[in-house]
């Protein structure tokens, strides 16, 4: 990464461009889903059921992955059926995903065993994957980022955005003692995410150091202010790296703020993980929450396609 502040602070920074893995299924979605979908195939499941909000990157990625791998997909979506024509869900339907809309109180049951048993009865040949794909299988897929990085650079710090905790847990699990993994929480939270990460790491023997930073959520999950968008656009344009405001925009704002505050000693080697999520720009542009011409907004599926 080239930026005047890096030379001034005497640090070396790289961006791990997981957004470039594939134009549709990329970033942490591919990392988390790959092991889960391989398990589906091995277990003989012909269908995958998972959960998400109406603009979910996970649902979008799962629909495409199922389509290319010959697996039927069902998305249990929090919200009203009207969402079916939004950017994310239009693509999901285009790739053959069946959508089941549930109200918020039903959605809250998504981790309860009784509810999951009922779902399994409704979809007997399905494997059920949790929201965001964040389960123990996902940790191994995410861990591949560390082995790739170790071949590329000797890094001290690795920064990533944190939503459900699955991605950072996979990074911590695979990292070495000398690595410091910093997570930028994209939502307002007070210890819940740390517990969630500990839970995912319960069998892990990792000695990597890790920490969550909770002051860069820009107002909460899915939220941001005009001033945040402005800052994200400045960073996007200075680095020539496409960003979106839900995850990586917040990550990059956090990084530059931490750099200004001298959180990294001189000579540090730092990696920022770009976790993709650019499909989210489609829904934001559709709702006019961002100006389409300023961002790298992907195309909407054409009617009749
Ligand atoms: C693009 C993107 N980056 C980061 C995250 C956060 O990852 P996790 O939920 O594993 O903490 C998500 C959400 O899953 C995401 O969609």
Automatic annotation (TrEMBL):
This is Pyridoxal-phosphate dependent enzyme. InterPro entries: ACCD_DCysDesulf, TrpB-like_PALP, TrpB-like_PALP_sf. The modification N6-(pyridoxal phosphate)lysine is found at residue 29. Belongs to the ACC deaminase/D-cysteine desulfhydrase family. Its cofactor is pyridoxal 5'-phosphate. SUPFAM superfamilies: Tryptophan synthase beta subunit-like PLP-dependent enzymes. GO terms for molecular function: D-cysteine desulfhydrase activity. It comes from the Bacteria. Residues 7-276 form the Tryptophan synthase beta chain-like PALP domain. Keywords: Pyridoxal phosphate. Pfam families: PALP. Signal peptide: none annotated. The active site is at residue 56.
